Task: inverse folding
């Protein structure tokens, strides 16, 4: 018999606090985590006002040595600024207070610093709030990088429900797109013998199904909607921790979304109002089309997105039909080593166009 040599490491958040007014529990949470007295809050201009300043006050009152660093875009430069500042101030715990970008900067800085970080989302625009991956912007789109898993998550639904509804809808679309990601993963397992975790797959699908089943409740844009979205995102994050990679939540639909980013901004809408598509919105549309390619129930995905109020067509998304087709036919270039329904060479222009038309995206 062959000897058993398998080994695996899974890193999970130690404590997850979700619900109404949970911000007030931040000092007790830091006490329990017990990583010392010197805390750095990372926020952007908006989230500083929304939540960062309150957390600063609460922690200062509880005798923490608190510093605040305001960041702008999620770039390598900003990550380096945070690292420098944290080193200078001998920080031993980081708090990422904000949307996806702020949390991405914080988790990358924490990873480099080898210090723990707490994820404090102020919106639920994508599933990065609970995952060990971060995406950074550069001149030609964005890259996904390995980062620190949050040691704890504190999600205050009172604050998250104040963020524009579009962000929440986009976050839900991102989690719903787990459906196509898992189909891609299963395919890669069957065709390429890629390692597959059925537990991680079930978790990722459960998160998506929760939002599909509750699409109408989410549309009410209440604090309850924020609760459902955050719950799904945390389960997605746990799925990625179990898998040890992003497979359960990122497949061909994410490649399509990254290719759209790479190809450049959206279009001018009537009335010259400029609209920049959001990550989750792009992934949701990608999921409709990729589930179709898999022969799955793509209409169920489309209908749930519609109910939630997330885009299902190029027009809703604010991207030209031509760009949708180009992104579809080139999506496979984003991550050629990750096998998906797009195969080794991707779709032809004709097939891409037909796919987008059949699913009503263009
Ligand atoms: Zn995503």
Result:
């Amino acid at each position: 018999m062959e000897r058993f040599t398998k080994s695996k490491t899974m890193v999970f958040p130690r404590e997850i606090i979700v619900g109404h007014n949970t911000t007030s529990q931040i000092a007790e949470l830091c006490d329990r985590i017990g990583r010392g007295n010197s805390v750095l809050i990372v926020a952007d201009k908006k989230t500083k006002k929304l939540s960062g300043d309150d957390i600063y006050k609460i922690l200062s009152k509880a005798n923490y040595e608190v510093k605040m660093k305001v960041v702008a875009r999620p770039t390598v430069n900003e990550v380096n600024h945070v690292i420098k500042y944290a080193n200078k101030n001998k920080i031993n715990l980081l708090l990422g207070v904000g949307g996806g970008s702020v949390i991405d900067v914080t988790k990358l800085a924490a990873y480099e610093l080898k210090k723990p970080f707490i994820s404090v989302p102020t919106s639920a625009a994508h599933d990065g709030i609970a995952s060990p991956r971060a995406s950074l912007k550069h001149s030609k789109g964005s890259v996904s990088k390995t980062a620190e898993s949050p040691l704890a998550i504190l999600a205050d639904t009172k604050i998250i429900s104040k963020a524009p509804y579009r962000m929440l809808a986009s976050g839900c679309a991102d989690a719903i797109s787990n459906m196509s990601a898992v189909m891609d993963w299963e395919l890669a397992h069957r065709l390429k013998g890629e390692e597959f975790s059925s537990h991680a797959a079930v978790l990722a699908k459960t998160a998506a199904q929760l939002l599909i089943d509750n699409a109408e409740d989410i549309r009410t844009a209440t604090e309850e909607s924020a609760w459902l979205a955050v719950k799904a995102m945390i389960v997605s994050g746990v799925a990625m921790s179990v898998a040890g990679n992003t497979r359960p939540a990122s497949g061909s639909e994410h490649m399509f979304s990254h290719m759209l980013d790479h190809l450049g901004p959206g279009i001018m809408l009537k009335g010259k109002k400029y609209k920049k598509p959001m990550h989750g919105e792009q992934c949701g549309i990608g999921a409709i089309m990729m589930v179709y390619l898999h022969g799955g129930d793509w209409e169920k995905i489309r209908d749930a997105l519609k109910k939630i109020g997330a885009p299902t067509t190029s027009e809703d998304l604010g991207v030209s039909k031509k760009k949708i087709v180009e992104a579809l036919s080139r999506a496979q270039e984003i991550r050629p080593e990750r096998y998906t329904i797009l195969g080794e060479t991707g779709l032809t222009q004709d097939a891409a166009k037909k796919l987008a038309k059949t699913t009503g995206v263009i």
In short: The radius of gyration is 20 Å. The CA atoms of residues 187 and 283 lie 19 Å apart. The mean pLDDT is 93.
